[in-house]
Structures are given as structure tokens and as C-alpha cells.
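Run folding on both entries below.
>entry_1
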Amino acid sequence: MTTNDKTAEKRTVVDQLSFDTKTAKRVAYSQWEFTIVGPYEIEVCNASFGYLKDEHTYRVMIDEEGIPISCTCKGFEHYHSPSGRVGKHMLAVATVGGRTLLDAARDFSPHSTPSDNDSTTTAAEKLKADGGTATIDPEPDTCPNGYDLCDGPDGDVLPCFPCLETKDRNRM
């Protein structure tokens, strides 16, 4: 049998996997989190379990083409591997994670080169106060109702509700 090269190139990863409808539904109804932990290795977490999600975290291995080939869960060893079908974790990587996740796991390098930027800025440093002083508006309150943030009915700042009513009445 010969293969058509044009259609073979268009096949997606999902087209190359064998799975049943039940597995596809379980993937669709679950929430997934992915972490690339090494070359060709993706950590898959079923976040639908809430605070117990750490107990439902497994590792999926992919091949050079980005196709999931194994999983560390019990279901893969006992049910899916012998039948040639993929489990929900492997299917989640292929469908929910998609081509972007698979390519990133395939291209992952633990020995990445550092960038030219050698200064480190933490969130605390970015949010640090500049040491300036607070300024106080020297103008006295012009609100006839005594509100601090109101400039009265003719001011530039959004007036308080009583001044706003006065302003609207003056327009009529």
C-alpha cells in the first residue's frame, strides 16, 4: 500500500492517536494544567480535582514528532498501553495543549544561554515607593456640602451627588 505524501503532511497529532469517545469526553470536561519539565517530557495536572490536584499529576513523554507515547499514570500501564489506545492525559496534551505545547516540549533545552540583561528586578523592587512627599492641595474646599474631593458644581473634578444635582438644575 502506498501513502499519499500530501495528506500525510496534513495529519495532525490527534489524527495519529487512537482513543475512544469516553476518553475524549473526559478530556473535554476536565481542566488541565501543563508544565514542561524536560526535553520531550510534559507534566500534566488534572486541575478539576481542586486542592487534590497534586495527586492527579502525571508525566507524559512525547517522541521527536511531538506525538505522546507514554504516561506515568496507572491507567496507561494497565488499560491503554496493551490496547494501543492513549489515555486522557496523553490526549489532553495533544488536544488541549496542542501544537504549541508539543513544539515547546520538543525544543526545550535545560542548558539555555542567559540573556544579555544581567540586572534582576523583582516585583518588590518595581513596586517600591520613590521616596517622594505627598502634596496637599492649597485651595480650600469649594464644595458647599463639605465633601473633601469635590470642587463644587463648577469644578474640574467629578462633583459629589448634591453638587451634580445643582449643576444639572442650573443647566435646565
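>entry_2
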Amino acid sequence: MLTPLRVAHNERDLDAWSSSVNHIHATPGFAGRSWPDHPMTLQRNAADLRQHEDDFAQRRGFTYSVVSEPGAEVIGCVYIYPSPDDDVEAEVRSWVRATKGALDALLYVTVLEWLHAEWPFDTFEYAPRNVAGIALPGVVQSGVDPPATS
């Protein structure tokens, strides 16, 4: 389930990514990036989450937690931000915690379909995954709409 990232996810978010730093760095779209890094405190992570919340509210970028069910374990994250490349509208990245690595391709396919069906982008970059053997879902997560465009 995708839900907008909130400070309320702080402890679960920190646990998810801090237990998976090497796995995230090996995930397409994260190689060579400075995040995730160590050490991280709950206070510093909360500040990062507040920035993502503010970006969402101000429509500068959209970050979603991937959770197993409402109020449950954070499995990963999806980021949708403007691209620094003038020829591309959005840069999309996602990761899953190391213990849920098998879900990465399914998350990728689900988000890719959602981007094509519901988001107003003509162009976006989303580092491809090996999706051989992954069935394309017929319907993207219900109840998770992109922000209104008006």
C-alpha cells in the first residue's frame, strides 16, 4: 500500500532504510547517491520527513511510504520529484527494505503502471528493473491518487 510519507512514519521509516543501506545503494536509481547514509538519529530522520511532507504540501515533490498495511511495517519508499534534466519532467525512484527485496520488481511495475495511467507526465525517468516473470497488475493501488492538478 502506498501512503504519503509523514513524520508519523519516522521510527518505521528509519528502521526500514537504516537496516538496508547497502541494499538501497545497490537498487537501480540509487547507485552513487549520498543517501542513505549513517549515522542517522530519529531527530534528523524526522527533519528529513518534515521536508518531504512540506514538498508534498507545496507540490514540489511527492514521497510515498510503502507499507504492508495501514499503521504497519514500512517496506520501502517511492519518490516523484522534478527532474534536473530539462528534457524530462520527473525523476522517480523507489526502494524496498533488504528483507523485502523480492518485492522490488513488483513495486516497480505497479508504480510504472500508475505513472502512465494517473500522472500527467509526458516524460519521466525511473531506473528499470528486471521484471521477467512479474505479472502486470490490472489496477494500480486503489485509493492512492496523484495530487490534483488544479
